[in-house]
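User: I'm putting together a teaching handout on how sequence relates to shape, and I'd like one worked example. Could you take Chitinase domain-containing protein 1 from Salix koriyanagi, show the sequence you're using, and then write out its predicted structure as tokens right after it?

Assistant: Happy to. First the sequence, then the structure tokens directly below it.
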Amino acid sequence: MRNKALEFIKQLGHALHSRSFNLMTLVPEDLQSLSDDVDGFSFMTYDYSSPHNPGPNAPLKWIRFTLQILLGNSGARALANKIFLGINFYGNDFVLSEGSEGGGAITGREYLSLLEKHKPKLQWEKNSGEHFFLYVDDRQIKHAVFYPSLMSISIRLEEARLQGAGISIWEIGQVVQLTVTNFGYTSITL
């Protein structure tokens, strides 16, 4: 079945290229064999943590490890321009209180609402390269919120640039309106 799926992707790539379209896919293990037929590989380097294991959404160590696996050998290094590092533009609100479980993804609107209501102190988690804050809700349940900031996004952009990779963004309407600064990149396609 796997071979048939790979053959389908190759044929699809040929068909799309003949009409001047690009094909991007999420197939990590077959990078080398698909590189002639696929224009880009987008890798989800977020959703590291979950309600059962709360923490940062896209720790730098995990991102670097992923890029190392993909681009570590010299053959794959030539494919760097086809690698797109997935960056999340949403956050997570995790429950931390003993005996409580839960939480999950939050949008920019929910993030701003939590900031306004609880007025928490933003903290920088150096090892993961992410901002977070803690708060206690109306039922006295403790939460940790991780949400991307300009600083965390900038670090991930630089990581992609250093590896010769591009970026792909998971956004779909949940981005907070931020003032964008010039990170020295000529363009970012969304």
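A couple of points you could highlight for students: The helical segments are 2-18, 31-34, 60-71, 74-77, 108-118, 150-163. Residues 48 and 165 are 20 Å apart (CA to CA).
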